[in-house]
Amino acid sequence: MKISKTFGKTFALAALLSATAIAGAEAHVTFLDREATQETTILATLQVPHGCDGKATTEVRVKLPEGFVFAKPQPKAGWELEVIKGDYQKTYDNHGDKVKTGAVEIRWKNGNLSDDFYDTFVIQGKVSGVEAGTSLAFPVTQMCGDTVEAWDQVAKDGGDAHGMKTPAPLLKVVAGEDHGHDHDDMAGMNMSGMPGMGAAAPTDETVKAGDLEVSGGFAKAMLPGQPVGGGFFTVKNNGQTDDRLLSVTSPAAGEVQIHEMVTKDNVMRMRQLKDGIAIAAGQTVKLEPGNLHLMFQKVKTPFKQGDSVAVTLTFEKAGKVDLVLQVLSAQGK
Ligand SMILES: [Cu+2]
């Protein structure tokens, strides 16, 4: 009994020591949530855990990286706010508006955050046009009267800040479940682009490849500012063996994804089907608005009613099938 009690105490002390060590290592300026999903609007919450060598923090300046756009700071009682605007390197789409300038630096000024206290500083912004796996660095200048702490060290490979004395806070950009989509655009399509499900008037072209019959292909005209286009068709499998639509390409788009719409918590969302769509023996599979569809990404020229869009479908067994989709109205009629 006595031995085990001593052991218990030693263990507790060791745990306490290691917890202290972790707290010490974490006493940098960091984001509360260090991951952000591509093409989403987030609240980037910066944590300031201490002052500068015991002195109170009086100003926090945050430089915003390219790809973190339409930024707005949250005002804080006791602090003045300054938003410095500048040019983005790229042009961003904000609900159909082309945006080239915006906040590039945020400053909370003339505050007083004691070294004994912890606080957070919040910036709302959208992560846009950033590849998954990229870490966005937000260099921070923490000022305590005339003492300055620069949290601006960035690892050369853009990755691990381990062992750095004053690393810049990093946001790691990750792919969403609905990779490549903007949730706002999806909501917009849900409201206006995809009503009248099944009301489409497809063309009568039928393409045969092995046991498969592909028919009723159409695409929808793209609304102004809409970054992605939808495509639809019907596949009938007259054979005895299952097949599978594996992938789709088109000269009209940088990428064509296979998607499905799913309703979860009353919100319609799109999901990429990376394994494609099974076309079982004897079955007919319909890609239609509000359900399975092709999603054209990086569209070179927005689809207009009356145009046609060439696609190449690749099936596991039937191989490649060329198809032309007629562009109908944005409503798919
Ligand atoms: Cu989609």
UniProtKB/TrEMBL annotation:
InterPro entries on file: LpqE-like, Lxx211020-like, PCuAC_sf, UCP037139, YcnI-copper_dom, YcnI-like_sf
Ranges of residues in domain YncI copper-binding: 28-173
SUPFAM superfamilies, A to Z: DR1885-like metal-binding protein (SSF110087)
Signal peptide: 1-27
Keywords, ordered alphabetically: Signal
Protein name per its UniProtKB record: DUF1775 domain-containing protein
Native species: Rhizobium phaseoli
